[in-house]
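Hi support team,

I submitted a single chain yesterday and got back a structure, but I'm not sure I'm reading the token output correctly. Could someone confirm the output below corresponds to the sequence I sent? I've pasted both exactly as they appear in my results page.

Thanks,
R.
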Amino acid sequence: MFDPTMQLGFGMMRLPLQNGEIDIDHVNRMVDLYMERGYRYFDTAYFYHDSKSEGVMKTCVVDRKPRESVLLADKMPLYSVKETADCEKFFTEQLRRTGAGYFDYYMMHALSAKYEEAVRKFGVWFYIRQLKKQGLIRKAGFSFHDKPEVLEKYLSTLKDVDFVQLQINYLDWDCPNNRAREMYEIARRHGVEIIVMEPVRGGSLATLSTPAQKMLKSACSSDSVASWAIRFCASLDGVSSVLSGMSSIAQVEDNSRTMNNIQPLSEDEFALLDRVATVIRATPTIGCTRCKYCIEECPQKIEIDRAIGLVNHVKRYGSTAGSWGAEGLIEQAKKCIECELCQPRCPQNIDIIKALKELVK
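Hi R., thanks for writing in. Yes, this is the structure output for that exact sequence:
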């Protein structure tokens, strides 16, 4: 039986900003409301928010709430592990940054085939399992971005995996590029706990095209568009937490209201979302989830996620009208020097340089 207080997870990767800095007062109010609604699972990572997210977890959660009242999740930054000693270096720093004392959930971050050598050569998984034996973490797992075949390989070869964090949403469910259903079914066969990330796909499933919105509103005019995406994931067996990167009080309100009054989707509603996904795919957009991993490597500091968002806006609506800061984003895109440092960091395998060129064009 899963813990109901983690059914809605608070992802600390898209926190509210004010004048370019994380708005701590706003985050405090979000955390308080989230916990008042009965939830306590907070997720962060080493590089979120230009490596400031773990510190925000300390300031807004650990320093303000009893440690036993919250569940904290963090991640080993696989892409920065270059030698065995890095494992201890990063974990020690994460304990210091968060003030957590221990992590309830700890994972290898964004595991894929390209990190297989690092996992084996530098003993990352062995190190994480030792942390569990020492009581410094409670559950060990990994977040995943790759093909189902790779997930099957890792779950078949790694020992003592407690959970996996998978990108699941109704748009990716039967998408041939993402194959979320297959990955969900693999995790179920292996009997591991499933935590869902990107249920609203970086917010894109909260801002649908007019035809797609009308389909959902005709089924239930009072429910938000985003709530359908949350309900889809929460309706899946074996899912312990639906993780939402919330950016405002309004999002905490909507998500907690949806989860507190959760109604599993009926067969007809599953079928409706399948039709909505077909409508969304009819307008081909770039599958950016606004994780911002690419920006950390960009020497030009281009707001790549917003630039790609503008490309998608034009694809959906035919112009830049209604998109804030369009001219500035186009000027940023022109500064791309095609160094390709961003490419390896993208978990969605987007051709970022091509996307920026498309925006300029």
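A quick pointer for reading it: Residues 267-282 form the longest helix (16 residues). Let us know if anything else looks off.

Best,
Support desk
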